[in-house]
Write a structure and sequence with these properties.
Length: 180
């Protein structure tokens, strides 16, 4: 019987996303203002369609800033999907637990000076409590660092598929974290 667990993490918006949303709203208002003065006297119906189209476009672009990550662990293998605006899903990471080189709490200082071919941040925030990371190598993406924010049940099932040395290191890190 397969062991399966999944978790959804909603990414918190940063200042960049809020600035982008503000820019979208201001651009939509500018387009409507210009259209009101130049098109309304000549093409009233076209103005109404322009209002609807601009409103829909602004809504669509603003909701594109809503990003979630779904962690799915099946028999020790992990898949991480990025869900954008609850409309699109993109597989970001899919790796067998046996291929993981390390799995530990994320400490940015521990990775200063280390280079990775790919870095994936699949967490609600990019720094803080509860962040974990793992590394692996693949032919397609090279040496990859994945930062994520798993619940204990996700970690426990992921642990089952790890190589023994990585399992022992993870157990040691978990004991350290619970002692602190």
């Amino acid at each position: 019987m397969d062991a399966f667990v999944e978790q959804i993490v909603v990414r918190k918006k940063s200042g960049r996303e809020y600035a982008l949303i503000t820019g979208i709203v201001l651009a939509a208002l500018a387009v409507l203002g210009l259209a009101y003065f130049f098109l309304l006297p000549y093409l009233g119906v076209f103005f109404f369609l322009l209002v609807l189209g601009t409103g829909y476009g602004a809504w669509w672009l603003i909701t594109e800033q809503n990003v979630e990550y779904e962690y799915s662990v099946t028999n020790g293998d992990i898949d991480i999907d990025q869900i954008i605006a609850r409309r699109r899903r993109k597989r970001v990471v899919s790796v067998s637990g046996a291929k993981l080189e390390s799995c530990q709490p994320y400490d940015p200082a521990a990775f200063v000076g280390r280079s990775f071919d790919r870095r994936v941040e699949a967490a609600a925030v990019s720094s803080g409590e509860g962040l974990w990371c793992f590394t692996y190598r693949s032919k397609k993406n090279g040496h990859t660092l994945v930062i994520f924010q798993p619940e204990p049940r996700v970690l426990e099932l992921l642990r089952a598929g790890l190589p023994k040395l990585v399992q022992m290191e993870l157990d040691r890190k978990l004991k350290q974290n619970s002692a602190e």
